[in-house]
Design brief:
Rossmann fold, 273 residues, alpha/beta, 5 strands, 9 helices, 41% helix, five-stranded parallel β-sheet, 9% strand
């Protein structure tokens, strides 16, 4: 004889299934997020539990928002400070190279990478330190930055090629970097640059975006143009998608805020449609 299951129990089970997070659904498409801090979301609370603190992975980064919206099963291996080498060959923060998370059953991969290969945000921090009376600020080697920019498209392309090799059926979205500095002078207190420094940093941003676009095109990936979409939301804008240099405790200067991450997530979901 089967026992009769109370109606209240059946109702509770049905309700639990209805409200369960989409990513937990059986057969959810596997999504791997890779990249540097502009993908990880350091300083955006809450940080993802059980992951290295140095990586700064937020549960509100663009990958998490996309996974929640679309019901993907997310594996987030993004990490602040990552270079293309940290994706392909070199472990970071006690973690293996990010590419190892990509498996044949992966169906979606997003990646934001290349900025640390060319010293983009690092140069901004150096200039800000110099211009606000900081100590031991160091120097920016503009020639070295420009030399790195000349080849970074190859390094980004190698990342995309490695994803295709490991997961031939995956769709790969390459997300470029949100805009940090304004297009035209003057800068502002939140982006403390001299006019000459502003011109240089705009060059770096534009060339990095072009390199990302070139790599995506060459390696058959979809470009998500966050740089263009955020052109009027830089660190000096009325509605920035970027933390300013002088920011509240716990926040990370020159990195995306919640609005920036949400905007990138919207760009990605639009591409997926």
């Amino acid at each position: 004889m089967f026992k009769r299951i109370p109606v209240a129990v059946l109702t509770a089970v049905a309700l639990a299934l209805l409200i369960a997070p989409p990513a937990q659904a059986a057969g959810a498409a596997r999504y791997v997020a890779m990249g540097s801090s502009f993908a990880a979301g350091p300083g955006i609370p809450p940080q993802r539990p059980g992951t290295p603190a140095a990586c700064g992975r937020s549960t509100k980064n663009y990958a998490s928002l996309v996974a929640e919206e679309r019901g993907f099963a997310l594996t987030d291996v993004t990490c602040s400070g990552a270079t293309t080498a940290n994706i392909l060959t070199a472990g970071q923060a006690g973690q293996p190279p990010q590419i190892e998370a990509v498996t044949p059953d992966t169906r979606l991969v997003t990646v934001t990478i290349g900025g640390n290969d060319v010293g983009y945000v690092g140069s901004l921090f150096t200039y800000a330190c110099q211009n606000t009376g900081g100590a031991n600020c160091g120097q920016v080697d503009q020639d070295a930055v420009r030399a790195a920019l000349a080849t970074v498209h190859e390094k980004i392309g190698a990342v995309v090629a490695a994803v295709h090799q490991r997961a031939p059926r995956a769709r790969v979205l390459v997300v470029d970097y949100l805009t940090i500095v304004p297009r035209t002078p003057p800068a502002c207190d939140g982006v403390p640059l001299t006019p000459a420094q502003l011109v240089f940093e705009r060059e770096v941003a534009d060339r990095l975006a072009a390199a990302t676009r070139r790599a995506a095109r060459t390696e058959r990936a979809t470009l998500v143009p966050a740089a263009a979409a955020s052109a009027h939301h830089d660190g000096c804008a009325a509605t920035p998608w970027m933390e300013r240099y002088a920011t509240s405790p716990g926040r990370v200067p020159y990195h995306p805020n919640e609005a920036g991450m949400a905007a990138v997530a919207n760009l990605i979901t639009a591409r997926l449609r």
